[in-house]
Amino acid sequence: MNIGIMGGTFDPVHNGHLAIAEAAYEQFGLDRVWFLPNGNPPHKALADIGSSIEDRLKMVQLAIAGRTGFKLEPYEARRKSVSCSYETMEHFSKIYPEHDFYFIIGADSLFTVDKWVHPERLFPTCTILAAFRDEMDTREKMDRQMHYLKEKYHAKSALLLSPIVQISSSEIRERIRDGKSINGFVPDNVEEYIKKECLYESQDQ
Fold first, then answer.
1. Predicted TM-score of the model (pTM)
2. 55-67 b/e with 16+ CB inside 10 Å = b?
3. What is the pLDDT of residues 93-122, one digit of tens each?
4. Where are the domains of the chain?
5. Which alpha helices (DSSP H) does the chain contain, by range?
6. 25 Ramachandran zone, left/alpha/beta (phi>0; psi -120 to 50)
7. Which numeric CATH code is attached to 2-166?
8. Would you give the DSSP letter of residue 165?
């Protein structure tokens, strides 16, 4: 099976995440997209995450409910130690050797992925799908970066044409703190959950 890996803090998951996952699912003929909430990301202090891993797992579960091919994968969320992408992907490759994995990242991450922990161990486990908007200058830069990664690491990568969705989790948290609506930013059931649990309302979050 062809499996897309959609990782992230998902604090909270929003419609932009879902749009990119849908685009990957359709454009690359994926059989599944696994949503992989990170319980202890290497690039972010736990104190800077505004909701618990239990809440983030629940929000992802709600967001993907009823969507064909989407699955919640709690592997990183259950780990106590810091989760690095190369470790996760080596784990998946070992226990699911029959699957081909496609690791979905944003355009910006394509230019920093070789600065991640052990990129030389990440690239053999998957094909990188880098989301981008169809802008010529951006495409040329990304083509050059993919060529560089291929030459240096034998990395497999491809461009993922993503819809333009101007949403970020930080903006959503800020809107909630300011008492503004987040309707249309997240699925309705996720919005209901955030309201029910009073998530992100405090300035401390």
1. 0.92
2. bbbbbbbbbbeee
3. 999 999 999 999 999 999 999 999 999 999
4. 2-166
5. 15-27, 53-64, 75-78, 85-95, 107-110, 119-122, 136-153, 169-177, 188-197
6. alpha
7. 3.40.50.620
8. -
